[in-house]
UniProtKB/TrEMBL annotation:
Gene Ontology process terms (BP): peptidoglycan catabolic process
Domain of life per record: Bacteria
Any Pfam family matching the protein: Amidase_3
Signal peptide start and end residues: 1-24
Listed InterPro entries: Bact_Sporulation_Assoc (IPR051922), Cell_wall-bd_2 (IPR007253), MurNAc-LAA_cat (IPR002508)
Residues annotated as domain MurNAc-LAA: 380-492
GO terms, molecular function: N-acetylmuramoyl-L-alanine amidase activity
Protein name in UniProt: N-acetylmuramoyl-L-alanine amidase CwlB
Organism: Bacillus inaquosorum KCTC 13429
Keyword entries, A-Z: Signal
CDD domains for this protein: MurNAc-LAA
Length: 496
């Protein structure tokens, strides 16, 4: 009896340990305020309760904010925004709360007026202004104010989208950001490189941002580029091997949020990626998947980063490449019975699965999206070429007799046996429950596409086309959607 109780206790304890892991979504938090000024304040609160020094820039002067971020990091100071002619209320309150004694204003009086500076002085705070006659001179003067760097970051001074993801790297390494035009280097930038005896540089952006003619005039240049702002940010993270244990995510068009968010990422020795505010971008999904990132901090409130994006980040399928294979196609109709062609049912359900996965932040890929035939070998090769994380083949079942009915899911043991079975175990009970079909269970079988696919793979037999009851369900959109939902939910459960 005592041994029996001991076994029960151990099983119960093991269940307690297992359940939280099984039910875990990705960790996502949001930091933001009601405006760019409020967001900068809320971000400062993540690091500082008090700060003797603060850096202030105009909330609309993105070029100044970009070069100010590494300076703020080096001065151990928050970066705050103000309006041009009056100190913003949020920033004024924050300076009081932090008991700030010194403020560095980055930018000239056209962007942060003398009146604003005087308001800060009247708070008993001393002022230092770093500014040039243009953005190139301002960036150069900020660089001169920083502790002797060995490397500089080169950006097109008019293309703000290239900047956010490089800021964490620049800031934590003490590398100033200098501006150039697309086709030539401004004299102020050249002077800093010479005076500071800079030995190497990183160009951020493609040749559409900074030409090769500029590249040739820089010390030991390395270029990081991308086809768009999202891919560029992802490439920066990968090529510079930035930490992704906690990823900061900002809207790639909301520069005010992205810049202060990047500084927060630097403070925590982490990386920042950017995305579309309404939907996770492809480049962003890829970096999340390749880095297996699962802990995120979203910068900004809706609509800058929507609830949809927040939920996509929370979903454990985000960034996963899932290959969906609708069986048969074209001249290969599959089973034909009760007025149904299996190839059409498979494709319909697969499209619904694809839509659900894509909406959730996954990178879903279909072996076919229309009435096309691909051999079994071609399907396996396609999945391999996409470096898919999962392979899900969708079929309708058939039998010479009209009696057999129900749903079943198959896996093979050649590759990834344990994970394949786990995926099948997650999908199968949901499939039978949602479709209200007989649960025929999870089974082993050497079907070609799951035998030779090297990633976790399953073949789903949704229901029997040759059974009138099952077929009547497969004719209805509501049940086809239920089948897709079961496959989708099972896939999400697998990742949890």
């Amino acid at each position: 009896m005592r041994s029996y109780i001991k076994v029960l206790s151990m099983c119960f304890f093991g269940l307690i340990l297992f359940v939280p892991i099984a039910l875990a979504d990705n960790s996502v938090k949001r930091v933001g305020g009601n405006s760019r000024y409020g967001t900068a304040v809320e971000i400062s609160k993540q690091t500082y309760s008090t700060a003797s020094t603060a850096v202030i820039v105009s909330g609309n002067a993105y070029a100044d904010a970009i070069v100010a971020a590494p300076l703020a990091y080096q001065k151990n100071a928050p970066l705050l925004y103000t309006t041009t002619d009056k100190l913003s209320y949020e920033t004024k309150t924050r300076l009081k709360d932090m008991r700030t004694k010194n403020v560095i204003i980055v930018g000239g009086t056209p962007v942060v007026s003398s009146n604003t500076a005087n308001q800060i002085k009247r708070m008993g705070i001393s002022i230092k202004r770093i500014a040039g006659s243009n953005r190139f001179e301002t960036s150069a003067r900020v660089a001169k104010a920083m502790t002797a760097p060995s490397k500089v970051i080169i950006l097109n001074g008019f293309l703000y989208e290239d900047a956010p993801a490089i800021i964490p790297y620049a800031a934590k390494n003490g590398f100033p950001i200098l501006f150039t035009n697309k086709t030539y280097i401004n004299s102020a930038t050249t002077a800093v490189i010479k005076d500071k005896k800079i030995r190497s540089s990183i160009i951020v952006g493609s040749t559409k941002s900074i030409s090769n003619s500029v590249n040739k005039k820089l010390p030991s240049p390395t270029r990081i580029s991308g086809s768009n702002r999202y891919e560029l940010a992802a490439n920066i993270v990968q090529k510079l091997n930035l930490s992704t244990s906690k990823v900061y995510v900002s809207n790639g068009y909301s520069y005010s949020d992205a810049i202060v968010g990047a500084l927060l990422a630097a403070m925590n020795k982490q990386s920042l990626i950017v995305t579309d505010g309404q939907n996770l971008s492809v480049g962003t999904r890829k970096i999340i998947g390749s880095e297996n990132a699962s802990n995120f901090t979203v910068i900004g409130t809706p609509p800058a980063i929507s609830t949809k994006v927040f939920n996509q980040l929370k979903n454990p399928v985000v960034g996963e490449t899932i290959f969906i294979d609708p069986g048969h196609g074209d001249q290969d109709s599959g089973a034909v019975a009760n007025g149904l062609l299996e190839k059409e049912i498979n494709l319909d359900i697969a499209k619904r699965v694809n839509m659900k996965l894509n909406a959730s932040g996954a990178l879903s890929v279909m072996s076919r999206s229309n009435d096309t035939f691909y051999s079994l070998q071609e399907r396996v090769s396609k999945a391999a070429s996409t470096q898919a994380d999962l392979f899900i083949s969708i079929h309708g079942n058939a039998n010479d007799s009209s009696s057999p009915n129900g749903s079943e899911t198959f896996y093979d043991t050649t590759y990834q046996a344990t994970k394949s079975k786990r995926l099948a175990d997650q999908i199968q009970p949901k499939l039978a429950t949602y479709l209200k079909t007989r649960n025929r269970g999870v089974k082993r079988a050497g079907f070609y596409v799951i035998k030779y696919s090297r990633m976790p793979s399953v073949l789903v037999e949704t229901a029997f086309i040759t059974n009138s009851s099952d077929a009547s369900k497969l004719k209805q959109s509501v049940y086809k959607d239920k089948a897709a939902q079961a496959i989708y939910d099972g896939t999400v459960s697998y990742y949890k």
